[in-house]
Amino acid sequence: MTINTIRPDGIPPADPVTIIAAAYGTMSAGADVTPAVRDIVRGGSLAIPVSNETLGGDPVPGVQKHFGVVYAVKGRTYARAALEGETVKLD
Q1: pLDDT digits (tens, 9 = 90+) for 42-81
Q2: 69 and 79 in contact (C-beta within 8 Å)?
Q3: Contact between 82 and 43 (Cβ < 8 Å)
């Protein structure tokens, strides 16, 4: 699914971002947060705060979580990862 954020002038950006998959949790348990990440990008942000609030809840309470996202820009695939409390920038 390609997410095209719209600029204030109504013109789509030159480099749309396609969110392929995103996950949040630990090695033993977690959640597919792809829809939440797509919503963030659709809202116009390429910075994703890695938090329970941003990603739709706490899949493993009381444990440090990891976040990973796979996305594409101009046909090239990229992956980013971060710990809970950090911010991932899709650039």
Answers
A1: 989 999 999 999 999 999 999 999 999 999 998 899 999 9
A2: yes
A3: no
